[in-house]
Amino acid sequence: MLIREATTEDWPAIWPFFHAIVAAGETFTYPLDLSSDQGRDWWLLAAPYRTVVAVDEAGTVLGTAKMNRNHLGNGSHIASASYMVDPAHAGRGVGRALAGYSLEWARRAGYRAMQFNAVVASNEPAVRLYRSLGFDILGTLPEGFRHPVHGYVGLHIMHRAL
């Protein structure tokens, strides 16, 4: 697996799984009816931030991550990131590779910590992954997310010092 900078030419490969994940309404706080243009503008970030894709040896996009500052001003030393793995390629370590890449990016960019503001509590694979990478749950917003299957579930704030 290779992780490289994403380009607008990658969007047609990202959009199908991006759209399916967002429209399912189970893991992201994005509008369920997000258009391709809106999604592209929200996901493909300009420098100094970064968006990457994980690709296999054939060049197939397996997943993607975006990395950015979490806060502005005097809180701008805290990074954040978001990840999407094509469900057809789940269970192959793509999410772990993207998360590891984003942590290294944040360290190299001089951030002191990484914080995730809204990890859906029922997204157990993501919570397990982040905890295995050293993230702690700082708190949970009770019923902060309306899950289409589980009803109202918590949103975790997760943090890891770099």
Q: How would you describe the shape?
A: globular
Strand count, sense and closure of the main sheet?
7 strands, mixed
Strand tally is 7
Give the helices and strands as they follow along the chain: EHHEEEHEHEE
Which homologous superfamily in CATH is the superfamily?
A: Gcn5-related N-acetyltransferase (GNAT)
Structural class: alpha+beta
Note the beta-strand portion. 35-45%
Give the low-confidence spans.
none
Helix proportion: 25-40%
Query: How are the strands of the largest sheet arranged?
Result: 1-2-3-4-5-7-6
Number of helices: 4
At CATH's second level, what is the architecture? 3-Layer(aba) Sandwich
How would you explain this protein's 3D organization?
The protein has helices at residues 11-24, 36-43, 94-108, 124-132, and strands spanning 2-5, 50-55, 61-69, 78-85, 113-120, 136-147, 151-161. With 162 residues, it is an alpha+beta fold. The chain has one domain: Aminopeptidase, CATH 3.40.630.30. A seven-stranded mixed β-sheet has the order 1-2-3-4-5-7-6. It is globular and about 40 Å long. The mean pLDDT is 97.
